[in-house]
Inverse folding.
């Protein structure tokens, strides 16, 4: 499909997303960067975006769905405003990440891969954030918090709750 | 003029480095001090983050700095020239933390923590981009490869294949187009070497890649980097732009006929993409599933063209080898393993951080001398090397030399450099379960034994840690483990059973205690722990009953409390809160 004009883009409701599309068009291996830019725009990959990308890279939506589900980065559901990633790497594991997990679940009332009802927080478990010497570690959006204790993590979450 | 430098890699930033940097900036501006403020990457002493260096010709390094400590450093050290000695971790005078650096030999980390990673000029001042100029002027591609071969450099990503041979194969391969790929998909839980190098000295990796591209005859290169490393990506992008604007990358590098374009590909989160053929599939935009080798990527790689893939640390070694000579590199290390190795030291250790040691150093030297021993004076139990592909080596083998040959003999692998230290409170069955859970999650699903075998092994391990282990479980694990090793295609599957096999090899009695006595000797598996209150020690302060989430603890004020075992969920909160050590964990 050729995107004809800026009007077209508007009608498709792909605002910033389209800019990225233009940049990647025609390149080999464009699918993953396209999905990444879709996710950057929406916070997840909506079905309409899959269909749209499918026409551009000429890959069937089913195959694109296969790629999305293969990589842990991609999400098919909307995310909360703050995405909390708890590190479950080796160093965090031996330094009691379990108790941090407990505190987060208590504080937010959600478990892995869930989003809080008010849409504020999404909670995920990741393999390693690479800050092992500061373990246990969590990451909220792009901010990393290390050397945590159950008390500290509760305090941090309360601060985020207050931000709204 | 005095210079203040703040360590701002991910470790430093998450410890509050940016706040310290901004506070310094404000203070310097406010007092209009004649001081230069700069940032640097990872200094290596992650256990003392935030690190701030004051340099007035002599180097003073302060540790554990917070914004409220800034004022005193400025008042005393900057204005009055009296260093705040009690906060120093390194300085002109000998200090206790000096032993952290004493046994290290820094090649890959030569510039880490010393230069500003955002500045190409600082890298150039440290002999940066001299190696590539030397290569372009004096060496043919073949002499470059000969030099790398002679140095004995082995791939630092985990496999340990000789880098020179890999380059030679790719050089000899026939193709109209060739590719260089830098594997920065550091996915091992417990490893952060590549992140630190990319964040602290990105140009050294770029220079290594340019030399490689010249040697094999490639004009296109990719860096495949984890999306979880936003800081590394940001600094790499900046470094590539700077190198391009100076003419060190792009067309006619250093006015020669050599061209190279380096592009960054962000990974999308899949551990298996650390495997060469899976990584290539991912760059091509497909699911990252490994394929059968041969043909090796050196002959048929990205888009079917000859491709050379090396890891970040391997590339960072290359410029040093060219400048200092292959002999200088091969004079370090042991017979089969030359040079140095970077380790990410973490876990139950006093001084966790990034260290680079000569090959052949012993485990004890790393743990006790560099790492400063175990936290809280607990007993050293084991180290875990090589992440989910590696294994546990017991403390009793502490005099073992760390090189490819000796580590492989233990059943573990050198791996990419994660070194997690474990103490007496770490349960080895739980560690094995932890890694199996990881590999089961990350298995791409292509090979049956990896897809289903790891799942079955995990189920056995889970039931052992839950106190439902059965006689014969250990034998089942050994049997299945060997079969997974023999019947899978890629490194992920072939090494997935290693954590289980090595822990059974060295800690079999711990498995047996779990299965037969239903006890966890390390008091770590919560299902196998019971909490009881020691009547003689209990003062009846009610702290435990108040903290208990399920009201399992009863008792009146100032009288002995009792835990109802039927209600107790073994969360351990009463144990943590009791000030009188009256809660017994068994």
């Amino acid at each position: 499909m050729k995107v004809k004009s800026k009007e077209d883009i508007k009608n498709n409701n792909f605002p910033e997303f389209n800019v990225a599309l233009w940049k990647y068009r025609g390149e080999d291996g464009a699918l993953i960067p396209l999905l990444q830019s879709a996710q950057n725009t929406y916070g997840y990959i909506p079905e309409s975006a899959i269909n749209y990308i499918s026409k551009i890279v000429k890959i069937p939506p089913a195959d694109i769905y296969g790629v999305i589900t293969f990589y842990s980065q991609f999400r098919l559901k909307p995310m909360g405003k703050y995405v909390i990633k708890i590190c479950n790497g080796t160093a965090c594991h031996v330094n009691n990440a379990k108790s941090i997990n407990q505190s987060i679940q208590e504080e937010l009332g959600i478990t892995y891969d869930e989003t809080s009802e008010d849409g504020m927080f999404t909670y995920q478990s990741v393999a390693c954030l690479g800050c092992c010497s500061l373990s246990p570690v969590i990451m909220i959006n792009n901010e990393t918090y290390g050397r945590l204790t159950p008390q500290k993590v509760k305090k941090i979450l309360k601060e985020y709750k207050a931000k709204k | 003029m005095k210079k203040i430098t703040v360590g701002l890699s991910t470790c430093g930033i998450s410890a509050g480095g940016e706040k310290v940097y901004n506070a310094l900036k404000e203070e310097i501006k406010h007092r209009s001090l004649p001081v230069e403020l700069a940032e640097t990457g990872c200094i290596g002493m992650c256990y003392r983050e935030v690190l701030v260096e004051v340099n007035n010709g002599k180097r003073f390094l302060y540790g554990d700095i917070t914004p409220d400590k800034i004022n005193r450093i400025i008042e005393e050290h900057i204005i009055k020239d009296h260093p705040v000695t009690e906060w120093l971790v390194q300085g002109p005078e000998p200090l206790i933390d000096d032993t952290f650096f004493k046994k290290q030999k820094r090649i890959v980390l030569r510039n880490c923590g010393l230069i500003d990673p955002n500045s190409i000029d600082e890298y150039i001042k440290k002999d940066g981009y001299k190696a590539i100029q030397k290569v372009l002027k004096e060496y043919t591609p073949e002499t470059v490869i000969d030099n790398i071969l002679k140095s004995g450099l082995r791939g630092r990503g985990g496999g340990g294949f000789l880098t020179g041979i890999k380059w030679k194969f790719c050089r000899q391969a026939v193709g109209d187009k060739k590719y260089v790929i830098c594997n920065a998909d550091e996915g091992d839980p417990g490893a952060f070497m590549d992140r630190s190098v990319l964040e602290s000295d990105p140009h050294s990796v770029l220079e290594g890649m340019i030399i490689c591209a010249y040697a094999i005859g490639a004009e296109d290169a990719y860096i495949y980097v984890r999306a979880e490393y936003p800081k590394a990506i940001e600094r790499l992008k900046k470094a590539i732009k700077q190198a391009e604007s100076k003419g060190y990358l792009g067309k006619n590098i250093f006015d020669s006929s050599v061209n190279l374009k380096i592009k960054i590909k962000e990974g999308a989160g899949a551990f298996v993409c650390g495997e060469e053929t899976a990584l290539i599939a991912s760059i091509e935009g497909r699911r990252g599933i490994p394929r059968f080798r041969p043909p090796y990527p050196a002959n048929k790689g990205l888009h079917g063209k000859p491709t050379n893939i090396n890891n970040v640390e391997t590339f960072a070694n290359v410029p040093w080898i060219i400048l200092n000579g292959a002999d200088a590199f091969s004079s370090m290390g042991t017979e089969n393993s030359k040079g140095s190795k970077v380790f990410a030291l973490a876990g139950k250790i006093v001084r966790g951080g990034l260290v680079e040691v000569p090959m052949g150093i012993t485990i004890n030297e790393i743990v006790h001398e560099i790492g400063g021993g175990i936290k809280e004076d607990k007993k050293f139990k084991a180290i875990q090397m090589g992440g989910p592909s590696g294994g546990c080596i017991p403390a009793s083998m502490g005099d073992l030399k760390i090189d490819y040959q000796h580590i492989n003999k233990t059943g573990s692998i050198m791996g990419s450099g994660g070194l997690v230290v474990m103490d007496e409170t770490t349960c080895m069955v739980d560690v094995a379960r932890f890694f199996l859970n990881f590999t089961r999650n990350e298995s791409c699903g292509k090979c049956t034994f990896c897809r289903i075998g790891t799942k079955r092994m995990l189920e056995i391990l889970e039931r052992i840690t839950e106190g439902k282990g059965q006689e014969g479980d250990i034998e089942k694990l050994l049997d299945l483990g060997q079969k997974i090793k023999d019947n899978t295609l890629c490194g992920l599957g072939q090494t997935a059973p290693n954590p289980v096999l090595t822990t059974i090899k060295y800690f079999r009695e711990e498995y047996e205690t779990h299965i037969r006595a239903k006890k966890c000797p390390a008091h770590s598996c919560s299902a196998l722990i019971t909490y009881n209150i020691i009547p003689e020690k209990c003062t009846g302060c009610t702290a435990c009953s108040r903290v208990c989430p399920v009201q399992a603890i009863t008792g009146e004020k100032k009288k002995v409390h009792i835990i109802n075992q039927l209600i107790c969920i073994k969360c351990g909160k009463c144990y943590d809160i009791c000030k009188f050590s009256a809660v017994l964990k068994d």
Notes: Chain A has two domains: 6-70, 82-162.
